[in-house]
Write a structure and sequence with these properties.
The structure is a single chain. By secondary structure, the protein is mainly alpha-helical. 72% of the residues lie in helices and 0% in strands.
């Protein structure tokens, strides 16, 4: 983390003032978001959640065709869901420039699958039409897993056998019957 991002974190914690100009641009704002995420993971607080939201909003204001893919990857890594959603919407709205810049090729497989699902009623065909067989495979595997249903353990008992039915009267009745 940069000295500017640490100073911005401390300033926000003690004064609740967010000054994005003191961060030195996108890299400083990402560093502050990383710090806020790290600290929020160790000790969640409303102030750190709000700082994360402010960082996400500031980063969204700076997203352009050159930074949208790297910002989406960073937001995925940091669990910045609002920023990630914004990046996916931006990529969808400017899909032609994403293609022209090579950004679609650089996009993480999972994010690319989300983008195709967002932009198309036929994401599998969209993935294949744009040369992303890896994404098509991911979409097929997910569809197959969804069609197969939950894993055996989630279905109840071993090897998909149903879980035993609860005793009439709930847990208390079952406990008193055992006594």
């Amino acid at each position: 983390a940069s000295g500017a991002s640490v100073a911005a974190l401390l300033r926000y914690i003690y004064t609740e003032r967010f000054e994005p100009t003191s961060l030195g641009g996108r890299a400083g704002c990402l560093a502050l978001l990383r710090l806020a995420t790290l600290f929020a993971g160790a000790s969640p607080s409303a102030a750190l959640l709000r700082l994360r939201q402010l960082c996400e909003a500031e980063l969204a204001r700076g997203v352009d065709a050159e930074t949208v893919v790297s910002t989406a990857h960073a937001s995925l890594e940091l669990g910045a869901s609002q920023l990630l959603r914004f990046c996916l919407q931006t990529m969808n709205a400017s899909f032609a420039s994403l293609l022209a810049s090579g950004g679609l090729r650089a996009l993480d497989e999972g994010l690319c699958a989300e983008l195709f699902e967002l932009r198309s009623d036929a994401p599998l065909q969209d993935a294949l039409a744009h040369g992303r067989a890896d994404v098509a495979e991911r979409l097929l595997n997910r569809a197959a897993a969804e069609a197969a249903g939950p894993p055996a353990e989630a279905a109840g008992g071993p090897e998909g056998t149903p879980a035993p039915a609860p005793a009439p009267g709930g847990a208390e009745a079952a406990a008193s019957e055992r006594v």
